[in-house]
Amino acid sequence: MSLEALRARLPEHAKDLKLNLGSLATEPVLNQQQLAGTFVASAIASRNAEVTRAILAEFGPKLSPEALAAAKAAAAIMGMNNVYYRFTHLVGGDYANLPAKLRMNVMAKPGVDKVDFELWSLAVSAINGCGMCMEAHEKVVLHGGLSKEQVQAAVRIAAVVHAVAGVLDAEDAMASAA
Question: Catalytic site residues (predicted)?
Answer without folding.
Answer: 130 (proton donor), 133 (cysteine sulfenic acid (-soh) intermediate)
